[in-house]
């Protein structure tokens, strides 16, 4: 089953949006298989955002992600990687559609509340970067026949 990595960033945690994010993914029909709150080390933040290391915003992005607790999670479901990105919305909250998490709750690109893996391969490496196997439980909710044909 496809998995993705979702992180509520420090701004989302401070603003009390952890429950809202979890609720939106649960209500959609995805299954939570791992969840933890942690304060991110510089090393982990730099690995997670390594693809952006030459970008002008890299330093402030790492500063921000390490500035307070985040909530890291892994979700499972058919097409979950692309679907979660749609639920999250565009990178800039001002252009993100209403109805998306960033579109409903944010205004600034540097405070866009949430991260979601951008492709299946990225999701696999991010899940492995953030979680040990023992922290993840694969389970099948009993309502599965009401979500999948
Ligand atoms: P994320 O990785 O956090 O899920 O966000 P994303 O895929 O939508 O956007 P990405 O291009 O991967 O950028 C990573 C994060 O860097 C910050 N950013 N700031 N100031 C800027 O121009 C700028 N561009 C990107 C954002 O917080 C973005 O989420
Ligand atoms: Mg990204």
UniProtKB/TrEMBL annotation:
It is found in: Cytoplasm. GO terms for cellular component: cytoplasm. Keywords: ATP-binding, Cytoplasm, Kinase, Magnesium, Metal-binding, Nucleotide metabolism, Nucleotide-binding, Phosphoprotein, Transferase. One of its GO terms (molecular function) is ATP binding. Its EC number is 2.7.4.6. The keyword tRNA-binding does not apply. InterPro entries: NDK-like_dom, NDK-like_dom_sf, Nucleoside_diP_kinase, Nucleoside_diP_kinase_AS. ATP binds at residues 9, 57, 85, 91, 102, 112. Its cofactor is Mg(2+). CDD domains: NDPk_I. It holds the Pfam family NDK. The active site is at 115 (pros-phosphohistidine intermediate). One of its GO terms (biological process) is UTP biosynthetic process. Residues 1-138 form the Nucleoside diphosphate kinase-like domain. It catalyses: dZDP + ATP = dZTP + ADP; a 2'-deoxyribonucleoside 5'-diphosphate + ATP = a 2'-deoxyribonucleoside 5'-triphosphate + ADP; a ribonucleoside 5'-diphosphate + ATP = a ribonucleoside 5'-triphosphate + ADP. Belongs to the NDK family. (Microbial infection) Catalyzes the phosphorylation of dZDP to dZTP, when the bacterium is infected by a phage that produces the substrate for the synthesis of dZTP (2- amino-2'-deoxyadenosine 5'-triphosphate), which is then used by the phage as a DNA polymerase substrate. Major role in the synthesis of nucleoside triphosphates other than ATP. The ATP gamma phosphate is transferred to the NDP beta phosphate via a ping-pong mechanism, using a phosphorylated active-site intermediate. NCBIfam families: PRK00668.1. Homotetramer. This is Nucleoside diphosphate kinase. The lineage of its organism: Bacteria, Bacillati, Cyanobacteriota, Cyanophyceae, Oscillatoriophycideae.
